[in-house]
UniProtKB/TrEMBL annotation, chains A, B:
One matching Pfam family: SpoU_methylase
Keywords per UniProt: Methyltransferase, Transferase
UniProt-recorded name of the protein: 23S rRNA methyltransferase
Species this protein is from: Ligilactobacillus ceti DSM 22408
Domain RNA 2-O ribose methyltransferase substrate binding intervals: 31-101
UniProt KW Transferase keyword: yes
Alphabetical list of CDD domains matching this protein: SpoU-like_rRNA-MTase
Length: 255, 255
């Protein structure tokens, strides 16, 4: 174990850079902040490269038993410097990013959530967490959606990205593949052809597309769906929060 | 219309104080930030006291046709000073707060959402918005829940608090009143007696209690429910976000 006491230590500077997309791309790793996430990473089948913790965490014997993980004791000041939250728990990890696969599995199984330009990191994270809970196989971060390795997305996912498949890229080939297999691709946009989500049968295998908070789905994706679903609104609210809508749809549609 | 150009103007100072619970209590009013919320207030049956806007908003002729509303032109600097967001739209209103009624309607109708110590302002606001969309009659902010007039709660409610009844106070008398009427009171906590939310019939009239993000419902409330519901989790996620869970339950249970 190495002790680092200065925020200007080159290692600290590099970890700090993982808060940017460019930094993550260059170093091919991302930063986890907080005990729950680090624990989820250790349980999961991912390559944990480094764990950094303040002296408070020295009690955690399990850290010392880890193989192939570099351990660093850091100061509270460094923890504050690295964290995107005002009061960090004082434990971090770096994880190897998986190279972006543009390749789509030749046979898709299960239910998949397709994010079409969803922007808010909290919404995105919550949707991945909900997809996990609903028994979905994977989530595709379509072009224009927020970055999966952003601190706020990671925080709201609560480790669910370790439990299901997470991909990113253009959605069109995914939609095409589902349709080729004969599986339904559901849009979620209120248009004249839309049907109530309660009118479609539950299924094990399908794709559900959720659109951008303000602008909805992209027209080219909308044109390719097998059905568009809407959630009937009884009160005077104009719409639902996208993560809530996704939750209702995922739990109702998934067999 | 009055023009205010200095952030140290006493009116500005008083408006600024509306960002605190104490300020709202003393002045018996609260602050709305943004055009959507101000518009919702004007449509609703509430007492709009003042509207403050930057010169950008002078086009909105409808403002000048309002009766009994004091209009103020303010500077962008004042707008930034008043707002809790980094880039305010430049329009605000103050609304008279309704005196806290501890009294419970002698006959409760429809479905009500009871918040048992829910803390996160975004979650609370989203839940009120979802309750509105699901056709609920009202929401009760139980003791220990975040304050309804907080900027972030107002922002996520998107004006839904104008569409349904919003009350605050101890939840016990509400639970007692529903039970007296013979209406179900559903808790949402996983315990050995809990049943799946899919196993209860839809109803028009019931109460649904959602608990604190970390600690769940208070034991005294849990002891008084007619049933506790849980949402079966298929994946490895440990739990659902409370606003997502509330959305699934509200839309499934409400006839």
């Amino acid at each position: 174990m190495q002790v680092i006491q200065s925020v200007s230590n080159p290692k600290v500077k590099n970890w700090k850079k993982l808060n940017t997309k460019k930094g993550r791309k260059t170093q091919e790793k991302y930063l986890l902040d907080g005990w729950h996430l680090v624990k989820e990473a250790l349980k999961a089948n991912v390559e944990v490269l480094e764990i950094m913790f303040t002296p408070d965490y020295q009690d955690y014997e399990e850290l010392y038993q880890l193989q192939n993980v570099e351990l660093y004791e850091i100061t509270e000041q460094i923890a504050k410097n690295l964290s995107a939250t005002p009061s960090p728990q004082g434990i971090f990890a770096t994880i190897k990013t998986t190279p972006a696969t543009t390749q789509i599995p030749t046979e898709l199984t299960g239910a998949w959530l397709l994010l079409d330009g969803v922007q808010d990191p909290g919404n995105i994270g919550t949707m991945v967490r909900t997809a996990d809970a609903a028994g979905f196989t994977g989530v595709v971060f379509g072009t224009g959606s927020a970055d999966i390795y952003q601190a706020k997305v990671l925080r709201s996912m609560q480790g669910s990205h370790f439990h299901l498949e997470v991909r990113s890229g253009e959605l069109m080939p995914w939609i095409a593949q589902f349709k080729k297999q004969g599986d339904p691709v559901y849009g979620s946009e209120l248009n004249p052809e839309a049907v109530s989500y309660q009118a479609v049968p539950q299924a094990e295998q399908f794709a559900l597309i959720m659109g951008n908070e303000g602008n909805g789905m992209q027209a080219q994706h909308l044109a390719e769906t097998t059905k568009n679903l809407y959630i009937p609104i009884q009160g005077e609210a104009e719409s639902l929060n996208v993560a809530v809508a996704a939750g209702i749809l995922m739990f109702t549609l998934k067999k």
